[in-house]
Design a protein that fits this description.
The structure holds two protein chains of two kinds.
Chain A (H helix, E strand, L loop, with lengths): L1 E4 H15 L3 E5 L15 H5 L4 E3 L4 H13 L3 E8 L7 H14 L9 E6 L14 H5 L5 E3 L4 H13 L4 E6 L6 E4 L12 E4 L4 E5 L3 H16 L3 E5 L2 E3 L3 H9 L4 E8 L4 H12 L9 E5 L8 H7 L3 H12 L1
Chain B lengths: L19 H26 L14 H10 L6 E4 L4 H6 L4 H8 L23 E4 L6 H15 L5 E6 L6 H12 L4 E7 L2 E2 L2 E2 H4 L16 E5 L3 H19 L2 E6 L17 H11 L1 H11 L5 H24 L17
Parallel strand pairs in B: 1-2, 1-3, 3-4, 4-8, 7-8
Antiparallel strand pairs in B: 5-6
Classes of the chains: A alpha/beta, B alpha/beta.
Chain lengths: 325, 338
């Protein structure tokens, strides 16, 4: 085990897969010589050279078009969209082209590509560089959607995404890039479509994603310490495919669930989980599912305003404690 | 008319710049597309083809001339939704194309693609794309793969005069020129982007010059003259294949039918269409050349007509008799099944 940061794990995963398969190419803005605006791809350009690690113009449609065209004939491109907010300028290629091609070609043309992107708030970048847009991707049939919360999962899930035959939208949470964690040495692969119970508990379950996972864990620890309430935390990790087995199993232990979502409230992933639990686990329900989300607002830049908007440890703690009262 | 084709109708042509064999091949290929599209139009009128259906009638010389110059073992093709002609010229089976139009299980996409979305990996035809200009960045990516794999192939990326005004085209031009990608951008200027003429949509109508800012050479070609298309294609493909970077071929062409089957084409006069048909029709031009130079006899051409008619009739019958896709197909090939 080595201790790596979340950002170092990104570069490790890409390097691991590029060494393994020469069909893996990496392209994006400032990813090569500059090492990525979040320094998540440092070292790859020197290691693999400009043919495989391609700095592109600031032209998101061209980047994703190039990735898609290359994937159609068997390359395995990893494309970076610097901020997930920028999906709005190239969403046609994602939603209408990449996601639909396998279906429209009757399986003739697969799309083994990964689009990595820095997602989410907490770093005061304001309304156009802070959004958590995983639900945009989740609602398009034909995409897989992954959002890791730890360095180990970054490495394992990104590597698995690169090996996957389907297009994967890989959301890296930008406020987590500096976080450290133990990462297994050598080749490390996790399975897409699996949630992870990161803290066991049987009084209630909190489902969380990406940056909300460590916050949910802190809130759960406080509930245990101050109130003797034993809450489990499930890192959802994979929105598509969604691990309903783990989600339901964990729910049935208590019949009480909370979601912690960074996305603005309407149509967040937690709404889907809430709906699934209601339909599939109705007779096990002790309380309605409670969603803890960012309100349905654009994210502000000011630190005190942004902190007030995103689900905080305090808000999670208070909501769960009051909900279980 | 927004632009002028450099043809002199009615004048007896000098010796053609193509052999008898080549001209006979062009005639057959173009007539195949024409008759296929006429049949598709008929089936549409009968309600057997539904949804969108964009016919290629009038533009046949472009794809046939281009394919005649291409290395069909290596090169790839990607285009927009006006794609039936491209598929036939790439060697795809008329039966499978027609069956996709009628939404049947034996169609190229098993009924899940429709008129605008058919593909054949085997023939290196990569769609069939429904969003105006989206195929241009994708074709640039196909070229990226040719270059990365060093397979010697070139991607021929087709787009229309409407698509020429889309921003993603310029993003692609820049990337392709910057990386010297093996791509020929084939602009099929049929003079109307849906119902709006080029003159009413483009600030500068010389669309083939739109790569100038990126150093991409562009050439205007009489897209109603299959031999001129073939010759321009050959030159462009040779240059692009040798690693000199992308080129644009601006084909001046014309679609006889509406934008789609639901378009009555009231934005232009009947006289305009009749004049092009009478003076520039790409199939008549080759037919005249064949006859004038004794490259074919009336009987031989009649035989070709009959053969094509039989192929198209067979395709139409196949497309009507094939079973509909099983409802379970709704859920296949969304993601890889596990």
């Amino acid at each position: 085990m080595a201790e790596l940061t979340y950002r170092e794990a990104v570069a490790e995963a890409i390097a691991q897969e590029m060494e393994r398969d020469e069909n893996v190419v990496f392209l994006g803005e400032d990813i090569g010589k500059a090492g990525g605006v979040f320094k998540a791809t440092v070292g790859l350009f020197d290691k693999f050279g400009p043919e495989r690690v391609r700095d592109t113009p600031i032209a998101e449609q061209a980047i994703l078009g190039a990735a898609m065209g290359a994937a159609m004939t068997g390359l395995r491109p990893v494309a970076e969209i610097m901020f997930s907010d920028f999906f709005a300028v190239c969403w046609d290629i994602v939603a209408n082209q990449i996601a639909k091609t396998r279906y429209m070609t009757d399986g003739q043309v697969t799309m083994p590509l990964v689009i990595r992107t820095a997602n989410g708030g907490g770093v005061r970048f304001g309304a156009q560089h802070s959004q958590a847009v995983e639900n945009w991707a989740m609602m398009i049939p034909g995409l897989k959607v992954i959002a890791p919360s730890s360095p180990a999962d970054v490495k394992g899930l990104l590597a698995a995404s690169i090996r996957d035959e389907d297009p994967v939208i890989f959301f890296e949470q930008k406020s987590l890039y500096a976080e450290k964690g133990e990462v297994p040495d050598g080749e490390h692969i996790e399975e897409l479509g699996t949630a992870k119970v990161v803290r066991p508990g049987d009084d209630a379950v909190i489902y969380a994603l990406a940056a909300m996972v460590p916050r949910a864990v802190k809130a759960a620890e406080r509930l245990q310490a101050e109130d003797g309430i034993n809450v489990s935390v499930v890192d959802v990790r994979s929105l598509v495919p969604l691990d309903t087995q783990t989600i339901f199993d964990e729910f049935r232990k208590s019949g009480r669930a909370f979601t912690v979502e960074e996305n603005p409230r309407l149509c967040g992933w937690g709404a889907e989980i809430s709906s699934l639990i209601t339909e599939e686990c109705f007779w096990d329900m002790d309380l309605p599912v409670t969603r803890i989300t960012t309100p349905h607002i654009p994210l502000p830049a000011s630190d005190n305003l942004e902190d007030a908007a995103l689900p905080s440890v305090d808000r999670i703690y208070n909501t769960v404690r009051e909900g279980l009262d | 008319m927004a632009t002028t084709a450099k043809t002199k109708p009615g004048k007896r042509a000098a010796k053609p710049k193509a052999t008898a064999e080549e001209l006979n091949h062009f005639y057959r290929e173009m007539l195949m597309i024409r008759r296929f599209e006429e049949k598709a139009g008929q089936l549409y009128g009968m309600g057997l083809i539904q949804g969108f259906c964009h016919l290629y009638i009038g533009q046949e010389a472009v794809i046939v001339g281009m394919q005649a110059a291409a290395d069909t073992e290596k090169d790839s093709v990607v285009t927009s939704y006006r794609d039936h002609g491209h598929m036939l010229a790439c060697g795809m089976d008329p039966k499978g194309v027609m069956a996709e139009l009628t939404g049947r299980a034996s169609g190229y996409s098993r009924g899940k693609g429709g008129s605008m979305h058919m593909f054949s990996r085997e023939k290196r035809f990569f769609g069939g794309h429904g969003i105006v200009a989206a195929q241009v960045p994708i074709g640039t990516g196909l070229a990226f793969a040719h270059r990365y794999k060093e397979d010697g192939g070139v991607c021929m990326t087709y787009y229309g005069d409407g698509a020429a005004n889309q921003g993603q085209v310029f993003e692609s031009f820049n990337m392709a020129a910057l990386w010297k990608l093996p791509v020929v951008y084939v602009l099929e200027n049929n003079r109307y982007g849906m119902g709006t003429s080029v003159a009413r949509a483009a600030a500068n109508q010389e669309l083939y010059k739109r790569g100038t800012a990126f150093g991409i050479p562009g050439e205007e070609v009489d897209g109603m003259d299959v031999v001129a298309v073939r010759d321009a294609a050959k030159k462009a493909l040779d240059s692009v294949r040798s690693g000199k970077g992308p080129q644009i071929l601006g084909m001046l062409t014309y679609r006889y039918r509406g934008h789609s089957m639901s378009d009555p084409a009231k934005y232009r006069t009947r006289e305009e269409v009749s004049k092009v048909r009478a003076e520039q029709d790409p199939i008549d031009r080759v037919r005249n050349m064949l006859m004038e130079h004794d490259y074919a006899t009336e009987d031989q051409l009649k035989k070709v007509d009959a053969e094509i008619k039989a192929i198209v009739t067979e395709a139409a019958e196949f497309a009507q008799q094939s079973p509909e896709p099983d409802p379970s197909e709704l859920y296949t090939d969304i993601l890889i099944e596990t």
